[in-house]
Specification:
1 helix, 71 residues
């Protein structure tokens, strides 16, 4: 009987330690997800700015070509 109680306690401790480890891993993964999401948002903003700048440059080229053709 005492042996079974000791084994059950040891198993409970092992499960508790595993649970703590999994909770810590979950927090770590959550932090990594938040970081990746923030970086993804930043890259999307960078792409939007680059696209807008490319449009401005294209318009500038068209305008410059028009001016040159007028001369």
């Amino acid at each position: 009987q005492l042996r079974r109680v000791s084994e059950a306690r040891a198993e409970q401790i092992a499960v508790s330690e595993r649970l703590s480890s999994l909770e810590a891993e979950g927090r770590r993964l959550g932090e990594m997800l938040a970081d990746i999401q923030a970086r993804l948002t930043a890259r999307r903003d960078d792409i939007a700015r680059a696209d807008a700048r490319r449009g401005e440059l294209r318009q500038s080229i068209v305008e410059t070509e028009r001016l040159l053709d007028d001369d």
